[in-house]
From TrEMBL, chain A:
It comes from the Bacteria. InterPro entries: ACP-like_sf, PP-bd_ACP. Pfam families: PP-binding. This is Phosphopantetheine binding protein.
Automatic annotation (TrEMBL), chain B:
GO terms for biological process: amino acid activation for nonribosomal peptide biosynthetic process; secondary metabolite biosynthetic process. Residues 9-350 form the AMP-dependent synthetase/ligase domain. GO terms for cellular component: cytoplasm. It comes from Murimonas intestini. InterPro entries: AMP-bd_C_sf, AMP-binding_CS, AMP-dep_synth/lig_dom, ANL_N_sf. PANTHER family: FATTY ACID SYNTHASE (PTHR45527:SF1), NONRIBOSOMAL PEPTIDE SYNTHETASE (PTHR45527). It comes from the Bacteria. One of its GO terms (molecular function) is phosphopantetheine binding. Transmembrane segments: none annotated. This is Amino acid adenylation domain-containing protein.
Amino acid sequence: MDERKELLEVLSEIREDVDFEDETELVSGGIIDSIDLTQIIAALDETFDVHITTGDIEPENFNSVDAMLELIHSCHMER
Amino acid sequence: MRNVLDWLDAAAKEAPQSAAFDQPDMGITWGEFQKRAREIGSFIAGRLPAQSPVLILMEKSPLCIAAMLGAVYANCFYTPVDSSIPEARMQMIVSVLQPGMVLCGGRFKETGLRLMPENTVCVTDDIPHQIDMPVLVKRSEEHIDNDLLYVLFTSGSTGVPKGVAITHRSVIDYIEWACEALCLPSGCRFASQAPFYFDNSVLDIYATMRMKGSLYLTPRVDFLFPKKLIKTLEQEKIDTVFWVPSALTALANSGVLTPGCLPQLCRVFFCGEVMPCRTLNMWKKVLPEADYVNMYGPTEITDVCTWYRVDRDFADTDNLPVGRPCANTRILLIDGEICVGGTCLSPGYYNAPEKTAEAFVQNPLRPQIPEIIYRTGDMGELNERGELMFLGRRDMQIKRSGYRIELGEVECALNSLSGVLLGCCYYDASRERIVGVYTGSADEKTVRLEIKKILPKYMIPDEWHRREFLPRTGSGKIDRLQVRREVEDEYSVI
C-alpha cells in the first residue's frame, strides 16, 4: 500500500467525519483539535516509525495530508 | 468607584489610539472598543431592563469582549459559554439563567435559535452602529456596585452546572489589588490563555483595561505548537502571562524554552491548578529574572483569594505555597477546609438558593453578627512560615489502612518525576485502589520505583496507566472524571 493511502486510512480512523483527502486547513481552520493532534502524532510514530516531539512541529505540518507526508519524508531523510 | 466601566472610559479617554485587544487578523484600539461596546450597550438597553442576563455565544475575539462590555453598558450582566460543549448542556445553562438575549457569532446563530426564541437571538456583527447616550447615562446613574457583572457556569458535581454570580464591586476590589500587588505597569501587554467562560480571563481583561495596556488573544491552536507559541509571544512583545499551570508545563516540556528566548516576558503568573515545582524550576532556569506568582482561588471568590510571590528556591518534589490572602480578603481554616470571607465573595449561585445555602454559610466563629463565608471544599494548612499550602480537594482526601491521604500530594510527587510529562490520580473506592495515570516516556515500572523514593509506601498508587494524552476540561485543566472513565472503559472490556 502506498504511504498516502496508508496515512489516509490512519487519519480516518481518528476522525471519520473529516475529509482528509481534500482539506488543506486542518489546523488553521480549527478542524482538528488538540486531542486529534496528539492521536495523529502517536499514529505517525506507530505506523511510519516517525518520532516527533511537539517542540519540533509547526501548524503547517498538519494542515493537509500532503504536509504530513512531507513531514514523514523529512523525518525519514534525517535518519 | 462603583462601575468597572470607569476603567474603560478612562482608557478610551487617555489612550484612545492604543491597541486594546489584538488577534492575528484583527486589532482594536481603546477608542474603537469603547465605541463598539456602547453601540452594543445601546442596542441591549433598548430591548432589556437593567440586570437582565445576556448570554454570549461567540468565538474568543475582540468583538466578543465588546459584546460582554456592551451588556455592562446596559447595566445587564454577561455569561459567555463554551461553544464546544454539547447543546444539552447549553440548554441546562439556559434553563438556569433564563437569558433575556443571546449575542451570537455568525456561525453560532443556528445553535442560538435552537436554544432560545427567535426574537432574542442577535448576531453581534449585525448590531447597528448607533449610540443612544442618554439611555446609557441613565443606566449608569441607576447602577449600584452590588449589581451583577457576570455569571460564569462551573461544573457541579451533580451534573447540573452552577452559575457563579459576581458583582462589580468584587471585580473592582480584585483588580485594584492585582494591579498594585503584581506591580503591573501602565501599558502592560498580556497574552491570554484562559477562555472567557473561565474566570482567569477576568484578570486578563480588566487588568489590561485598568492599566490601559493590551491583551493579545492567543489563538487556541498555538498552544498545540510550542515553537509557534514562543515565536508569537516574542513577536507580540508579550510581557505578562496569566495561564493555567498545564499550559506552562506543556511549553516547558516541549523543549522550546531556551536561554535568550522570550526577552520581554517578565511576569509569569499562574492559577487554576497546582503548579508543579519542576515546571517552575524549568522556567526559572530560562527566565531567572521574571516575577513568578502562584495564585489560588475558586470562581466563587472572584478568581483569586491568596497569592504567593516566589521568593526562594524549591526542589522539584516540593509543594509550592499558595501563600497569603489578598488585601481585603480573609482566609479561615475550619477543620482543615479553606473558607473565604470578604468583598470578593459571590452573592451566590444564580437561581439556585439551595446550592447557595450549602456553600455560602454563616461564619461559625462570629455567631454574633451575620457574616457570610464561602466554603471552598479545598483542604489547606499553614506551613511553618505561615503560608497557606493547598492540600487538594476535600473529596480528593481519602483514607486507606487508617492513613489519611491527599491525592493532591501523590499527584505532586508524580509530576515531579523526570520521565513524566503530566500525571494525575484517583481513588477507586470500590476496589480500594489508588490509580495513577500519566503521560511521558517513563514506563510503569520506572514510575513505581522512582515515586517510592518520594512517597511513603501507603501513598503509592496500586496501579499505573501510561497514556498518550490526558483529557482536558474546557478551561485546560486535567479532566479527572474523564481520565477515570477512560481507564475504566478500557479495563471493563477485558
